[in-house]
Amino acid sequence: MATWIKSLFNLIYFATILGMLFPTIMTLLPGDASKPNQVGYVSKCSFAPWSTLSLVAITLLLIGIVYVIQRSIVK
Predict the structure, then answer these.
(1) Fewest Cβ atoms nearer than 10 Å: which of 17, 31, 33, 34?
(2) What are the backbone dihedrals phi and psi of residue 43, each rounded to the nearest 5 degrees, phi first?
(3) Which whole-number Å values give the CA distances from 34 to 25, 31, 37, in the listed order?
């Protein structure tokens, strides 16, 4: 595989992880939600930690999709 394609996929992996890291962390930060979350404190998202886990799952799914696309280009 050409090195520029490898670099492109590495950039896509990095952008996906970095792009999903910020909203994932934001769901756990203390904030002004309408009610306490499942952990017991008031955070930016009242659905924490479930929203955090779902964002992690979406990130893993996106990385898996990029990996499958990368493997299909290699063939």
Answers:
(1) 34
(2) -115, 180
(3) 19, 10, 9
Report field, pTM of the whole predicted structure over 0.85: no
Token readout for 59 is 């990130």
CA distance 11 to 29: 28
Instruction: Count, in order, helices (H) and strands (E) of the chain.
Output: 2, 0
Exposure string (b/e) for 49-65, b if CB count within 10 Å is 16 or more? Answer: eebbeebeeebeebeee
The answer to whether the CB of 38 falls within 8 A of the CB of 48 is yes
